[in-house]
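Annex B, item 7. Sequence and structure tokens for protein A, then protein B.
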Amino acid sequence: MPLVESDRRLVEAELGRDPTRAEAALFENLWSEHCAYRSSRPLLSAFTTDSDDVVVGPGDDAAVVSVPGTDQLVTFGVESHNHPSYVDPYDGAATGVGGIVRDTLSMGAYPIALADALYFGGFDRDHSRYLLDGVVEGISDYGNAIGVPTVTGSTQFHDGYEGNPLVNVACVGLVTEDRLVTAAAKEPGNKLVLVGNATGRDGLGGASFASEDLAEDAETEDRPAVQVGDPYTEKLLVEANEALVDEDLLMAARDLGAAGLGGASSELVALGGLGARIDLNEVHQREPNMNALEILLAESQERMCYEVRPEDVERVQEIAERFDLGCSVIGEVTEGNYVCEFEGEAQRASEEASGDSREPETVVDAPAEFLADGAPMNDLEREEPSEPETDLPDVDVDEAFDAVLSSPNTASKRWVYRQYDHEVGNRTLRRPGDDAAELALHEVAEAGGEETALAFSAGTNPNWTDASPYRGAYATAVENATNLAAVGAEPLAAVDCLNGGNPENPDVYGGFAAAVDGLADGCRAVDAPVVGGNVSLYNDSNAGPVPPTPTLAMLGVRQGYDAPGMAAAGEGEFVLVGGHDETLGGSEYLAQFDGSAPFPDVEDSSVAAVRTAATHDATLAVHDVSDGGLAVTLAEMVGESAGVEVDVPSVGALFSEAPGRAVVETTDVDVLRDAVDAPVVDLGETTDDGVLSLAVAGESVDYDHEEIVDARRVLERELD
């Protein structure tokens, strides 16, 4: 996609001349939607991004927040790799993992956990299953090889993703204040050092590719724009980065992602209000005869750009050599423009033939800040999203329960997470499949502090945002906060991955803008500052735009490692904290039977009550009400010898997905009711027969544990 004429005129006016071929390509990529957020940045001011615990907010490679009461800092980031995962599901997803891990390294942190939020077309389609299989294998192979556990996430199916799947990956890292590194260059005269893989021609134009609609032939035509990952080199890079931080050798760091070396190096010096002089011939390369544009923009993986004091360069080179990594001193930080020089094969041949020596050609000479932040923002038209009409199906409870329980959206995702190593690193306190993951911060206890755990949740529900972008996105924040509350954790911070279609279509942009506002308001309501994120637009194909998909990853913190699980203990009574809700908008029940209804207004007042219940002495189990409503929540709590016998007032109450509520098994209902500040509704009791017995407005449903497990094995049956 060439530099558009209006942008070219701005560049010509700034430079006072025509841009070189390399400059035009660099501006094209850095001013793309993927890098510059031209359509979304005007909306992002809706988010609250600071709190007493925020150390580094939006704008760096990853956000940094402090863990209250400790000396530990947590890095937090999220990335999308949507278009690449359609073209090449394995490498597209794998390199998404690699990129978000390197964002963590850029802050001087060590990665400790990953989350994946995945969205595909209808599960009944062969192509959707092919994409799912490749994406999960790519995430698994890369994450497992680098030793970072994938501990939580979500997998959703919706017709809107048929021609454009979404692959969003979040990463958490640990660092302390004395080891913290940022991406802002510090001082002229410092050297710029490239460490990691050699530069090839893979991933050329990846940033601009990610800013276009997917064409029908994208799987073949756009394959050169997809990077190829090498997790074993990434693991070496992780350890080398740790060694460099150990010796305080890094003044600033930026990973090479979108727009490759040109993007990372120009943004690094721009953040510091400085410039650079780079010799592209010094970049270590793995392919012959690469030209300046290729060296600048290739998105070859597993590479970091470091600012290093001149006296430390030799030591950096020694550490890179120890870890068998390439290392190039490519230039230095200056007070002037961002300048790249290159001596091509033709020039070298001419010099050899004539015996004359000439200065390398200057292929880029532009203000770094103009490159990184000079893109004009788009002023786009938007249409307010319309509300769906109410059209409720008339179906027997038994039939509805069967359909919802066995839907790929509510079915067990064990097929996905069993492929991930979720315990490497010895921090995982709770395996995937529960409401939220928990990670032990051993460093706090080892320093004499109280046992402290991080809770981690990620995802959104496209049925919700399809029904109402604003309220569905608001519900996304409440749902993730409720996941944390179910394990007794308070929100610490959130990052978002805002996915949408072509913003030039007013209806698409209107829905996207509404989702941004809803997520911002929801995160404010649950006291979770949005400290960073990613935007991915132009997720369109011949099948149409994706639904507004505001993936949210949320971190929480709790004291102590012990938290109730979601499985019934079989020794108490069941209550519903937050009370019944009978609204069905956005529910899997309506999706299964082609019904429709507006998404409900969302209450967040019960989230704190769920957290209180989860930390109460009388509590045996907690599970939030979400996808599939109370029906799926109760089914997931049944065990081989722990049954559930409850009474539900209506079909609406059984299948409503209104978030902010949770089922609690307790040994003392009265004491729990007095402890929480929210409605607490009696549901029934546990049994020792491993059977789910539901009485619903005069009808009954009975499922034993084996039947529930079998009904929810949809993914395994189709994919094994």
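Protein B:
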Amino acid sequence: MMKKLLMATGLLLLAFQWNTWAQTIRISGQISEENGDPIPGATVLLKGSTTGTSADIDGKYAIDVPKEGILVFSFIGYETKEIAIANQSTINVTLVSDISDLEEVVVIGYGTATKRDITGAVSSVTASKLENENPNSIQDVLRGNVAGLNVGMSTSAKGGGSLEVRGRTSLNAGTSPLLVLDGAIYYGQLSDINPNDIETVEVLKDASSAAVFGAKAANGVIMINTKKGKKGRPRISINSNVGVASVAAMEDVYGPHEFISWREDVFKSINAGGYEPYEFSDPRTLPSDISLDEWLAYDGSEGDPVTVWLQRLNMQPEEIKNYKAGKFVDWYDRIFQNGLRQDHTVSLSGKTDDVQYYWSLGYLNNEGIIIGDEFETIRSRFNIQGKINKFLTVGMNTQFANRDEGNVTVDWNNLQRLSPWGSEFNEDGTLKYRPNDEVSGGNHPQYDRSYIDRQQKEFTLNSTIFASVDLPFGFNFRTNFTPRFTFYERFNHESASHFEWSQRGGNASRQNSRTYYWQIDNILTWKKNFNNIHDFNMTLLANAEKFQSWDNTMSNNGFEPHDRLGYHNIGGGINPIISSNDQYSTGDALMGRLLYTFKDKYSTTISVRRDGYSAFGQSNPRATFYSIAGAWLFSDESFIDLDWLDFGKLRISWGSNGNRDIGRYAALSDLNTGKYFYQRPNGELYFVNQLYVNTMSNPNLKWERTNSFNIGLDFSLFKGVLDGTLETYKMSTRDLLVERSLPDILGFNFVYDNLGQVDNKGFELSLNSTNIQRPNFTWRTGMNFQLNRNEIISLYGDTDEEGNELDDIENQWFIGEAIDRIWDTKADGIYQESDKDEAAEYGKYPGDFRLVDVNQDGLYTIEDKQFLGYTEPRFRWSLRNEFKLYKNFDISFMLYSYWGHDGTFNQLKNRQGFLDRTNSFITPYYTEDNPNNEWARLYSSDGSASFSLYRKRSFIRFENISVAYTLPKKMLEKAKIENLRFYFNVRNVGHYAPQWNWFDPENSGPTPRYVTLGLDLTL
């Protein structure tokens, strides 16, 4: 009986197990990050059991589980996700990082730290968030995205623009921030760095964060970090885009018929009340009370009245001939173009347990909006690091670039000079040098470039080779060796076939230069945490550097019998000139920094750096710079219990940094040579060499020093809905590096010296908000606001009889005022016909500008000048909005604004150039029949005064709008494509400037608009 019972039980269990197996299915899929990258090693577990598996190198998994149940997906650093099986066979999962913003690692000088521990003012930009905007340069990545960083505009095909952190702090020394590329100081051009290679950019703004770079960091530091391979299978990424540059802002010139009417008004204004009725008018439209004979008799003319009329308007025979033939030229089309732009980058990257690599190759070819403006470059980057064993890692970050800048651009300024009635070609079909045969009437815009043969290229190789050794007790020693090579060549030939250059028998020149720069950084770091209470992060640095360059230049002219070989036969001329310019400098540094955190709430950073640089005087070859900073994460305090506060951190810092941005021999006297002819008593001429001291030395020259005090507040509110940073700072720059003027009796014009003080203070606010977050719609906004004020505290120490320090009138630097303060005679409207007598007292006429005579002495002197405004914006802001629709569409746009500053606007005078011999941009102007109080008459008079006119240059720019579409992954899986995205971008959509209506308020010249279409493909 028992035997039968056991057999029945076994059969029952077997049937149950069979039923269970019959209900088991295979689930497969891929586990990815939010950006689509796979997560190798992620765990998949059947909830409530021990059944599980791990994702492979591509993030893919497969598991046999019952039809009903729950799968748990997890990986270190990501939030765990549970998904019901619900009879599904494919489950793709996206895991969200559970690392808070405070735990995010940020690159700082010679190391890294978490945001929680940072005590200085550091702003970070992630380049991947701007991919849809197709940044062509580092400046495009940064523009409008960092509070306190001013990015200039460049309208050339090369692009780019100036960089300035927290305003101007120096009078003569450079104000550009220090560049650091992948942890090593970088002295190359930003155009050599491919924006597609950039991972993040950190901007170190206060003295504490930048102090580890000491004598080079007074103007801030920009740290560029390039991409590294990510764990998983090898990836091939392709970014390819094409676009068009078109003219967005340009002023019109007078067309053929408007030109004639305008020229009539020019001569009426030049002769201001001293001409006969209708003297400059078309004789075919004379009123009935003036006969043609009377009209001709005004100046005793005879012959064809139309010819006489045009001659009175100073039109040249060529113009008169073309006018009668009805032939005119639209010079705009000979100067401007729609430029083709293309940028292509392919990269290969990956990471295994032992090797991490990233390689890219990029080609960029941009045409500008002006004919001849072109920039071409090939750029490549190779980053690799390998783990040799448990304690040794070696690697290399190498960047190669080959730039071609041999373009010859037409002179767009000829547009306002050239008469529409000039001739474009000679009778033989060649370009006519002077279209109207008048010297002041402008040259054919394409004439010069058609006789120039130019080759200008620069090859650069920048590399950082490193080895890192992990030592016991939390120590690490790393050595960086960073060599940089540049090879520059410029060959130029100006043909003797040119109308003017023929007189010199053609010109040719060759220039070759080579630069070799290296630096070594020996870095010892110690990171140790004791009982999760005391956290130490110490960095010690020993640095050495050397710069050396060699430059050779030769030129010649008067080539005989001809110059057709150009720079290929530089010795064929009769006037050879050979010169060389070699330079050499060295530097060294010692640095120590300690970042200490107590209970993850209280942090302090202390640093000291000692720098030496050969450019300074022998009495001060070195300087020491200090900083100290503290931070308090007050949101982690038990006595602060606010539901709406996620985190809050208060920071305070003080530090001292230096500026060494001067010439390598600024402190030294240098000897110069020259040659001159000497005549013997018998009349024979011969060359005499001379040797003379060219500059005055200053053995006491030392670093310009900037002390900076900063208070910052970082916060996040409402469960991450709103976060931001508030900064306020004050900087004081002493021992300014200035060119001090010297009396002529000394034999030198100036000497470099340390004089004076400039203070700088400001306020910055950055905000980021998630306005709406739904499954199929997300709207995020980012905003930056900044204002900056500077003041000259002292200059040279020279005082007047009352003990007040004297201003520098020549450079317009005034004690107690800003560096950019405008000091000039103030205009007060236009003299009207009723003001004729008053205008005459100052040698002016109705239609000229009335100026404020402060002391009422009837003269315009220095005593009449006033402070009128500022040339730098009083505040700046930017606003970015990002929208994500249905997980596939991304839309973003950005605005930025500069407000409250003034710019010169002398076009109001209507006297740009020789109006009686050229064309002009179309502007309003005063006439007796059409008076106004803003625009002067044509060819107005300044009288005895010398002054400029100013207008508010405030503007808001619609910087860009971008639309991108990412194809769903299910569509791409069959083609083995990981990601495919198409994007469309318009940069410089338009601008609003309420008081500035001349060209572009940021550029004051032709400004381009870029339209780009591209794709991003990952295999």
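Comment on protein B: The first strand starts at residue 24 and ends at 32.
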